[in-house]
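Dear colleagues,

For the upcoming journal club I promised to circulate an example of a predicted protein-ligand complex. I picked one with manganese (II) ion because it came up in last month's discussion. The inputs are reproduced below in full, followed by the predicted structure.
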Amino acid sequence: MFFHRKDLIVPVEVKNPDPAYAQFLLQQFGGATGELTAALQYWVQSFHCDNIGIRDMLQDIALEEFSHLEVVGKLIEQHTKGVDKIEADAYRSPLFALRGRGPHFIDDSGNSWTSSYINEGGDVVRDLRADIAAEGGARQTYEELLKRAKDDGTKRALHHLLTREISHTKMFMKALDSLGKLTEPAFGNVKPDETVNIYYHMSSNGAPQRGPWNQEPEFTYIADPVKEAGHLEHAGHARRSG
Ligand code: MN
Ligand code: MN
């Protein structure tokens, strides 16, 4: 059951409307990294999560994302309002000139929102990792929007939205940690084969780059997989017999 309170989660007061800027904001309304994507992703994930606490968190954050969608919608509404006074500016954005004022479920380039933006399915660990990535995308878009914002009210609202995406990232990371899966790559019921800790140096031009992602003792570094073809054959054999 849903109720809607008409108060915004953060105040929106645009003093200097700019339809060209509103077009940028569409990315967070009907774009891949936008609030509709986040809200629907966490909401649908909650239906296949058996962990009661994490299901509740997904639904709480989904509803907060709907509140963010409302804020972005309100920002776009205010930035495209009063076109009579700023007619010249209003038509700097062909999207609003053709489709009318206020938000639409398209991104800044006019692409329609699609459910293929949503990353979900099958396992809570997989879903939570997708959610951390989604929050990263949203946070980065808000940073780019903030850089380009000239209106103080717009900046205040966007700063809050950016902050909350960091909060959600923390919550998803804690939830993964509570499952023991924040730093544990494997999940599910199939045990990896014996190649699990082999690093193949496959892309080569000069000195190999080494780091914690390919260092002993955790990893076995295969500097020349062609010369040491046995390892690749071994991997192929392990896959076939696994
Ligand atoms: Mn959000
Ligand atoms: Mn978020």
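Two points we might discuss: The longest helix spans residues 52-79. Residues 39 and 65 are 5 Å apart (CA to CA).

See you all on Thursday,
B. R.
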